[in-house]
């Protein structure tokens, strides 16, 4: 009799063991990024996307502007736990109020957006938001979800120029989903706080955009690709920092930066 109980107990233990293994595997699968691609593939695609961008847009390379971007990026990246990319910030001469992230750490900022910003600290929180999209691989996810992971891989590794340009368009012009927008905001708010830049500047920027374009909010490129709803505005403008929080100015003459723009 007791032998039978032991046997049943062992069977039960084995079942629990299997369930435990299954769950740990399941959790591992959830934690691992399902949209991971090889670094070389991502770099090739990013180079292609960049070439494509340069066909349609003119980038501005001015040493003073580059050094301003350098100051901001250094402040941000030194406060990140891991930095996945060697970030490249491209300034595009265009009146669109827009910014977007491509692959492999390439971020594009339009002069129309820089003109719209009131301070270097505001630019820093926008860049922190774009870094959030990059670190969390949202662009790969967006493309893969739209055309399917298999098609994405075959286009990405096949090198067909026409399909690649379609892929580029998809990556830069379609909207992120709400979940990814919120994740990029959370990343930006946290990174801004760690970098001693007031995180509520993100909400202030959103409110200004909305006020300025209250009738045609959806026409704004930035909002078309980064859908903005009242939850995002509220969360970022109400973000709480500890009482001891004090912003450490970037010491950038913002009027001078705006005057540098063509
Ligand atoms: Zn976004």
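^ structure tokens above, recovered residues below v
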């Amino acid at each position: 009799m007791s032998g039978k109980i032991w046997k049943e107990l062992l069977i039960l233990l084995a079942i629990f063991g299997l369930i435990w293994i299954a769950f740990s595997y399941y959790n591992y699968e959830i934690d691992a990024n399902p949209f991971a691609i090889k670094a070389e593939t991502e770099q090739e695609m990013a180079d292609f996307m960049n070439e494509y961008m340069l066909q349609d847009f003119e980038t501005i390379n001015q040493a003073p502007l580059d050094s301003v971007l350098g100051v901001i990026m250094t402040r941000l990246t030194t406060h990140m736990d891991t930095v996945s990319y060697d970030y490249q910030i491209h300034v595009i001469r265009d009146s669109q109020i827009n910014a977007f992230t491509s692959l492999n750490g390439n971020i594009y900022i339009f002069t129309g957006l820089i003109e719209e910003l009131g301070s270097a600290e505001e630019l820093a929180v926008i860049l922190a938001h774009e870094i959030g999209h990059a670190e969390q691989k949202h662009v790969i996810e967006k493309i893969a979800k739209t055309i399917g992971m298999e098609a994405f891989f075959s286009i990405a590794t096949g090198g067909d120029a026409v399909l690649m340009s379609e892929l580029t368009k998809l990556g830069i012009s379609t909207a992120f989903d709400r979940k990814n927008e919120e994740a990029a905001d959370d990343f930006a708010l946290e990174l801004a706080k760690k970098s001693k830049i007031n995180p509520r500047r993100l909400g202030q920027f959103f409110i200004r955009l909305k006020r300025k374009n209250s009738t045609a909010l959806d026409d704004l490129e930035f909002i078309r690709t980064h859908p903005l709803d009242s939850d995002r505005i509220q969360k970022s403008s109400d973000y709480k920092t500890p009482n001891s929080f004090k912003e450490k100015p970037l010491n950038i003459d913002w009027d001078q930066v705006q005057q540098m723009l063509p």
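The chain has 13 helices and four strands.
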